[in-house]
């Protein structure tokens, strides 16, 4: 039990990321319900909810994919998107390199 508490305490950003993802999903469901009732999608909301994520949020999604799901390739995609949004995101470069190394990609 103590180890689980320590693990939860050591990864607060993952919990925050999950909360943000949950909020995006709820907002998308609400938007879908409203647009179905109106019959159209307002142009300000026509883009994907993932398009509105920040570099830091993409980075944390990569961490989630990598560490909790073990999906190295999926994590690399999130890290790469974080780097595109913030070319100075050192952690995204580092973790993308580690994920690529784990996959045997030099």
Précis, in short:
With 106 residues, this protein is mainly alpha-helical. The N and C termini lie far apart (39 Å). It has a single domain, classed as Alpha Horseshoe (Serine Threonine Protein Phosphatase 5, Tetratricopeptide repeat), CATH 1.25.40.
Shape call = elongated
> Under CATH, the topology is which?
Serine Threonine Protein Phosphatase 5, Tetratricopeptide repeat
Mean pLDDT level: 76
C-alpha Rg, in Å? Answer: 17 Å
Throw out a few tags for this protein.
106 residues, 73% helix, Serine Threonine Protein Phosphatase 5, Tetratricopeptide repeat, mainly alpha
Summarize the SSE layout with pairings.
Blueprint: H1 2-10, H2 12-38, H3 55-68, H4 72-85, H5 90-102
Helix pairs in contact: 2-3, 3-4, 3-5, 4-5
Task: Please provide a written account of the structure.
The protein is mostly helical. The protein contains 5 helices and no strands. It has helices at residues 2-10, 12-38, 55-68, 72-85, 90-102. Helix 3 (55-68) packs antiparallel against helix 4 and helix 4 (72-85) runs antiparallel to helix 5. The longest helix is centred in the first third of the chain and has 27 residues, at 12-38. It is elongated.
């Amino acid at each position: 039990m103590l180890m689980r508490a320590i693990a939860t305490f050591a990864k607060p950003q993952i919990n925050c990321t999950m909360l943000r993802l949950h909020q995006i999903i709820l907002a998308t469901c609400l938007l879908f319900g409203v647009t179905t009732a109106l019959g159209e999608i307002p142009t300000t909301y026509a883009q994907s909810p993932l398009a509105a994520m920040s570099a830091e949020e993409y980075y944390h999604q990569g961490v989630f994919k990598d560490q909790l799901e073990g999906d190295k390739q999926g994590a690399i995609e999130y890290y790469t998107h974080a780097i595109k949004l913030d070319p100075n995101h050192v952690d995204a470069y580092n973790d993308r390199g580690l994920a690529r190394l784990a996959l045997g990609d030099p």
